[in-house]
Write a structure and sequence with these properties.
heterodimer; A: 149 residues; mainly alpha; 5 helices; elongated; B: mainly alpha; 6 helices
């Protein structure tokens, strides 16, 4: 029968706790990685990391940025819609002011009256007055003298 | 002897007169529409035959020396006239459209529009003729620009002469259409306007 080991015998310190020399070669570990020597205990509060304190880019920030961009885009869209609505409203009065004349055209030709025939007659005169034979078709346009022949 | 001489003289005068009248007849022949799809050579040959162009040596030399500068002037004239002719066509179309509308309105007012419709058709015919002559005129100006005038002065002269005839025809037809609209169509419209005037109470009682 082997004698029992005394329970209060000091245990050799683990290598990781060697304060005199430290580990012979230790790679820097990123902050997010939890050291295997101190695994997180389920009931214990986690120590605040440097990221949580605002010292570097947090994983929540891209989301925040995205929400801000989406918000700005929505506002731009709203403003655009409002401008278009306002433009349409400003056009409507002009359309209504001509409604009398356009309605008469939409209903097709109306029966001639003395004034409507006279108006057409005057309009034809106006068209004719824009033609000037002497200016548009001068008689001497293609003479030998004009062409230098 | 004297009688024989007189007879000879009168025969010679008659021959000269006949030759002159034949030449005049050729020169006065109105240019025909070139066949559709005709080539430049065919059109030049047609114009030469129509105009009977036969330049003497002096005139040929003169044309050879001056035709290049003349072509530059023709190009400038053509550029101006294309716009003017398009504007005229638009004005005639506008007048025709107005006549259509008035005719419809007069029909709705129970008026007899037979005369007005006949006049509108006559104006449409005049406008179509004007457009045909304008197209031929433009084609002739184009040909006179494309032709090698120094190699074929007779062809160039025939084309320029043809363009002159078309130009004169355009002037005549434009004036004719103008007079027709003013004296006939507008007069008819004025008659309708007078007829449709509301009668006063005195006239209604009579």
């Amino acid at each position: 029968m082997q004698p029992d080991q005394p329970t209060n015998q000091p245990q050799p310190a683990p290598q990781t706790d060697d304060k005199m020399f430290g580990p012979p070669f230790q790679q820097p570990t990123p902050g997010a990685v939890v050291s295997s020597a101190n695994p997180p205990q389920p009931g214990q509060p986690q120590p605040a990391s440097a990221n949580d304190a605002g010292g570097g880019p947090s994983p929540k920030k891209p989301w925040l940025l995205a929400w801000i961009i989406v918000g700005v885009l929505l506002i731009c869209l709203l403003v655009g819609v409002m401008i278009m609505l306002a433009a349409n409203n400003s056009k409507k009065p002009a359309a209504t002011s001509n409604s009398n004349s356009s309605n008469s055209q939409d209903q097709g030709p109306t029966a001639a009256t003395s004034s409507s025939v006279q108006l057409s007659n005057d309009s034809i005169s106006q068209d004719l007055s824009s033609l000037n034979d002497d200016k548009d078709l001068p008689a001497d346009r293609l003479t030998d003298q004009n062409l230098g022949l | 002897m004297v009688k024989i001489n007189k007879l000879r003289l009168s025969l010679a005068a008659l021959t000269v007169a006949m030759a002159g009248s034949i030449g005049m007849a050729v020169a006065d022949t109105p240019p025909a529409n070139p066949p559709a799809g005709s080539t430049l050579d065919q059109r030049i040959a047609q114009r030469k035959a129509e105009r009977g162009t036969a330049l003497n040596d002096t005139d040929q030399k003169r044309i050879v020396n001056t035709c290049r500068a003349a072509q530059a002037k023709i190009r400038s004239i053509e550029n101006d006239e294309v716009t003017m002719l398009a504007n005229r066509t638009q004005v005639y179309s506008s007048i025709d459209a107005k006549l259509w509308i008035v005719t419809g309105q007069l029909k709705l007012a129970k008026q007899d529009t037979f005369q007005l419709e006949k006049q509108r058709l006559a104006l449409a015919d005049k406008t179509n003729n004007f457009q045909t002559v304008a197209a031929n005129y433009k084609q002739t100006l184009d040909d006179s620009l494309v032709i090698n005038c120094q190699a074929d002065p007779n062809g160039f002269k025939a084309l320029v002469d043809t363009a002159r005839i078309y130009h004169d025809q355009l002037r005549t037809q434009s004036s004719d259409s103008h007079d027709y609209i003013v004296n006939t169509l507008k007069a008819t419209l004025t008659d309708f306007a007078n007829k449709l005037q509301p009668k006063s109470a005195d006239q209604g009682n009579q």
